[in-house]
Design a protein that fits this description.
Immunoglobulin-like, 6-stranded antiparallel beta sheet, GH13_cat_dom
Length: 280
């Protein structure tokens, strides 16, 4: 790894090009406990980005507390001053939608996209593809049409309804949720802001906040029951109201609708991203 770092540094200096990023993907060996060794030290820096597969350890029976613990663990595993990553899926394992269910796919995507770090997706996760009947590897489903007879990769079982053609331009689709959440990544609070995590009964809350910029609240109801929470309990930065930016499939909420944050009502399994003006 040290030799690769020296090679990239020398190449950049010799050719006067933009800095070359060293990305490490060592799936069999990288863990939360040894992640820092791949980054090196201040005196001898190594990798710029290490692919962290902690998301793959999400328990099947998700709840607000287990997701909070996961969020804290992934946040704390990356050394201070280094850039985190979130690998959401990996070949050889069940797909994200098969692991967490369609009801939480949007919540995990929103979390990764507004977190401090770089998310990595496996093709098809953006539309909620599940495992193929014959195993993990399946064709990307662009349309509901049958593939040619010579096509060898299996289709996932929901290909006629879960495909890009059906979700493109559909404002109530997994693809639209991902695109809307991804559009927030250049916002100052998401790029440079602080992160606050909280659990309010069965509701997980993550806040990205930066003074002088709009803040963002991710609110996820991990219960199969409706829930009403006072989001002001999560942080003193939370004001009385905010506006809906993104809502999970089936939520029924309208983009930019104004909502009160003191008694915020959530449907079962609902995930919502809210923009607000933080209190400082």
């Amino acid at each position: 790894l040290k030799e690769w770092k020296e090679l990239l540094v020398n190449y950049t200096a010799t050719n006067e090009t933009d800095y070359k990023v060293l990305v490490v993907d060592d799936a069999a060996k990288v863990t939360s406990s040894n992640l820092s060794t791949y980054f090196g030290t201040a005196e001898e820096p190594l990798a710029d980005l290490v692919l962290d597969r902690a998301v793959l350890t999400l328990p099947k029976a998700l709840n607000a507390s287990s997701f909070h613990a996961f969020a804290e663990r992934t946040s704390n595993s990356t050394p201070e001053g280094k850039w985190p990553s979130y690998v959401l899926d990996s070949e050889g394992l069940s797909r994200l939608a098969s692991r967490v269910g369609h009801e939480y796919v949007d919540a995990v995507h929103m979390f990764a996209l507004i977190s401090h770090g770089t998310p990595f997706f496996l093709y098809g996760d953006e539309i909620g593809m599940v495992d193929a009947e014959k195993g993990k590897v399946a064709a990307m489903q662009w349309t509901a049409e049958e593939p040619p007879a010579t096509f060898t990769l299996p289709r996932h079982p929901e290909y006629q309804t879960v495909n890009v053609d059906a979700q493109e331009g559909n404002t109530t689709s997994h693809l639209d949720v991902l695109k809307r959440a991804a559009s927030l990544r250049d916002k100052p609070a998401v790029r440079l802001g602080n992160t606050v995590l909280a659990v309010l009964e069965d509701v997980f809350v993550m806040m990205r906040v930066r003074k002088g910029s709009p803040g963002y609240l991710l609110v996820v109801n991990f219960s199969n029951q409706e829930s009403t929470v006072d989001l002001g309990r999560a942080s003193s930065h939370v004001p009385e109201s905010g506006h809906i930016e993104v809502a999970s499939v089936g939520s029924g909420r309208h983009h930019e609708a104004k909502v009160k944050l003191a008694g915020f009502h959530l449907s079962p399994h609902e995930a919502v991203l809210i923009q607000f003006v933080p209190i400082f």
